[in-house]
Design brief:
Blueprint lengths: L2 H12 L1 H18 L1 H4 L6 E4 L2 E3 L24 H10 E4 L39 H37 L1 H15 L3 H9 L6 H12 L1 H14 L3 H8 L4 H38 L10 H10 L4 H28 L2 H12 L1
Antiparallel strand pairs: 1-2, 1-3
Length: 348
Amino acid sequence: MSPLNRRRLAIFKANHRGMVSLVIFCLLFLLSLFAEVIANDKPVLVFFEGKILFPVFTAYPETHFGGEFPTEADYKDPYVMELVQAKGNAVWPPIHYSYDTVAKSETAERRALTPPSKAHWLGTDDQSRDVVARLIYGFRTAVLFGLVLTLFSGIVGVTAGAVQGFFGGWIDLGFQRFMEIWQSIPTLYLVIILSSVIRISFWWLLGILLIFSWMRYVGMVRAEFLRARNLDFVRAARALGVSDLVIMFRHVLPNAMVATITFLPFNLSAAITTLTGLGVLGFGLPPGTPSLGEMIVQGRNNIQAPWLGLTSFFTLAILLVLLIFIGEAIRDAFDPRKTLVSNQDQLS
C-alpha cells in the first residue's frame, strides 16, 4: 500500500462515526446474505437415517421421509415432522417463517395484523406474513439492487467520461449534446409505460434505471480527463508510443477515480431510495417480492397497525444514515487538504 493510501486509511479510521457505520452496515448486510438460514419455514439441517440433508437449499419430496406425496415436503405440517423425528431430527432457523410464509394460529386461522409477540417479534402484515422475515429479505434486496446498480452505472459512466474527456473535440461536443437529450427523458414515465407492457422484474428494473443512472458519473470523470490530457506525463507517454487505452485507464483514470469513489456511498443511497420510491408508487418489484417500498405501503394502508409503518421507516432511515456517514468518512479520507496536512505532520 502506498503512503498516500495509508494516510487515507488512517483518516478514515479516525472518523469514528464513519468507521462504526461501516462495521454496522457490513454486519447487517452479511446477516441478510444468510437470510435463508435466519428466517425460513424449512429446517436448516435435517438428520435423517444417518444422512445430513439441507432443505433450505434442496427440495426433498415427502416420499423421501416415508410420506405419500411426491411433492416437496411441507415441514410446517405436523405429519411430515413426525416422519422426520421418527428417524432423525431437524435444526430450525431462529425465525420459523420465510418472507412469503402465511402465519396461521393453532385453529388454522391467519394471523393478519397481529402485534409484536414472542412468535412474531415485529408482528405480521395484512397478509399474515412475518414482518421480521420480510424485513431481512427486503433489506438484502434493497442493498443488492443498490450495489449492482451503483457498480454497473459506475463502470459505464466512468468509461464514457474517460473517452469524452480524453479525446475531446467533436467526440466531447457530440456526447454532451447526446447527454442533454438523454437526460430530458423522464425516467418515471418510462418505467410506468414499460410496466404496462412487460412484467417488471429485478433485472428489468435494474436495466431501466441503468440507462439513466450512469450519467451522474460522466461529469466528474470528464472534467478530470480534460485537465490531465495535456499534462507532462501524458505527453511523455504519447511520445514513448504508449497506446491511448493504456494512458487512459492506467495513468489518468486512478487520479480521476478519487472524486468518483467519494460519491459511491451517496449514489448507493440514491439507488436504494429510488427502488423504495418506485415500490411505494407501485412500479417497483413484482407483487410479493420483499422490499422496503412494499413494507412502507403496508404501513400506509394499515394505520391501525403502527408497527408496520414504524418498522419500515426506521429501517430505511437507519440504512440511509449509515451510508451517509460512510460517505462523509470516505470524502474526508480523499480530501487532498487533509491528506496534505497529515503528510506535513508526519514530516514534522
